[in-house]
Structure prediction request, 300 residues.
Amino acid sequence: MRTDRDPSAASTRPGGVLYVVATPIGNAGDISARALQTLREVDGVLAEDTRHSRRLLAVHGIATRLSPLHDHNERRVATQVLRRLEKGEHLALICDAGTPSISDPGLHLVRRVHQAGGRVRAVPGPCALVCALSVSGLPTDRFVFEGFLPARRAARRRRLASLRSETRTLLFYEAPHRIEGTLEDLRDLFGGDRSAVLAKELTKVHETVQSASLEELRDWLRMRSEHVRGEFVILVAGAAEESASSAADDARTLLVELLQELPVSRAVEIAGRVTRCERNLLYRLALEISGKGSKEGAGL
Ligand code: SAM
Prediction:
């Protein structure tokens, strides 16, 4: 690649650069000049779906060779990519939409390049979670991205139970055929009054950002359930600080009782099943109660 103006390009370290390049999540205009230049000038582009990405490159008159890197071949391809980088080739990694390795292939490859002492550079751009957060009106100073929830209902509800007391804004990706069930679970486990936002089809013609309580959002979606298509990010306001601390208070009360009869590990195990508080918190509380840890360490 001729136009690597990155300061680290002056490094004497051998090997090419792996560029992690973001592409549009809907609106074809959302691709940066630097992304296009990178895709044009690298020696090869690794793409999740080469047919899909060939169209993107063709629209911009880019003829760089594409090769597949997806969930099913990433480990094998990573070894070949490392060899190419060692030979001095520069490569770009893209996914079907948005930023690679965010709920998409790429993490394993990026890790392998780091482990081998190679260079990975970001060419940033669209990412559905950041895009959704920026238009949601929910607090953006502290947030937690949970990716896709488990597909199976019982596992999904367990995961949500463990997040009930989370005070940061929560973000989830969800497939259209599960959106209704997931909203139902969110309402059941977080309470119908909790504020939430559905960000649908961001940057596309039918972009919708619907802000309401979980109860209202579930009803809103139910009324449209026959027409629910498209891509969604679900955002949920964090729990009020008081309810988070009262969950910890309940856990503390339970642990006090359990620790009269049981060792720390067993008490933490049972409290984990009953309260769904995080194991680390329960463990710190249990150590504090049993006099083996400091109050400060319990984080309360
Ligand atoms: N790598 C992508 C990124 O940077 O956001 C995410 C890919 S993940 C496989 C696909 C999920 O992202 C969808 O199921 C949806 O939850 C979310 N998503 C992607 N594009 C979206 C859009 N235009 N509007 C709303 N959500 C979107």
About this structure: The chain has three domains: 3-126, 129-239, 242-298. Residues 25-26, 95, 97-99, 102-104, 127-129, 173-175, 199, 201-204, 231-233 surround S-adenosylmethionine (CB under 6 Å). The chain is about 40% helix and 15% strand.
